[in-house]
Amino acid sequence: MTAEKVILYGYKFSSCSWRVRAALHLKGISFEERPVDIVRNLGQLSEEYRAINPAQKVPALVIDGETLVESMAILQYLEDTRPEPKLTPSSPLGKARMLEICETIVSGIQPLQNSGIKRHFETEEQYNKFTQHWCDRGLRTLEDLLSKRSGRYCVGDQLTLADLCLVPQLFNATTRLQLTLDKYPTLSNLYEILLEENIFKQTHPKNIK
Ligand SMILES: N[C@@H](CCC(=O)N[C@@H](CS)C(=O)NCC(=O)O)C(=O)O
Questions:
Q1: Distance between CA atoms of 33 and 95, rounded to whole angstroms?
Q2: Residue 184 Cα, ligand 1 centroid: separation in angstroms?
């Protein structure tokens, strides 16, 4: 019996897709990435893609005969079904610390700088001002949280889902949103270290077709 192919519907510059792409690589799951161009041709808004992800956003993952949407639900599914390597701390406190970072990014930053909201602003300038403000405020929160308790990674010395959320968000902040991390020494340092990890080199947008 041939195993069903795992398919990631994603976009190389999408931070939410990068989270999932990194988890798939870390867990050694081979997959095919099907690009959905969410910026130029707005492929996510087609009816065909809506049948895959009703939210008309990336990512979506086809795995084990199911189609999963929402990056955090996908990451949790991968953690539960392919637990090695474990990307969640074992202790309740460690897990809560990880979720603080994930939530700050996933709920507090990403939706407020999503490319999908751009068409609801009258000018590009208004959109840029709005996204930069909320992203920078989120970065300040992350700096305050992480300066107190990060180690080599966001939660001590274990690579966790928090790092999978952090790197793509910092990439977006410093490229598309043109923010600088100068005010945020902890974030700057973590980002530099994490970008040197193989997992983030392999899955970096510049290395994705
Ligand atoms: N909460 C969702 C957010 C998904 C999301 O906003 N994806 C962005 C790319 S990172 C997207 O598809 N944007 C295009 C749009 O909103 O039209 C998740 O974590 O999967």
A1: 29
A2: 26
**Residue limits of CATH 1.20.1050.10 in the chain:** 92-202
| The CATH classification of domain 92-202, taken from the options 3.40.50.2300, 3.40.1400.10, 1.20.1050.10, 1.10.1710.10 | 1.20.1050.10
Distance 208 CA to ligand 1 centre (A): 18
At the top level of CATH, the class of 6-85 is: alpha beta
**pLDDT tens, position by position, 154-209:** 999 999 999 999 999 999 999 999 999 999 999 999 999 999 999 999 999 999 98
- Could you write out the DSSP letters of every residue in 20-46? HHHHHHHTT--EEEEE--SSSS-GGGS
- pLDDT per residue as tens digits for the range 31-63: 999 999 999 999 999 999 999 999 999 999 999
- Cβ(57) to ligand 1 under 6 A? yes
Determine the distance separating the centroid of ligand 1 and the alpha carbon of 106, expressed in angstroms.
10
Cβ-Cβ contacts under 8 Å for 152 (sequence gap 6 or more): 193
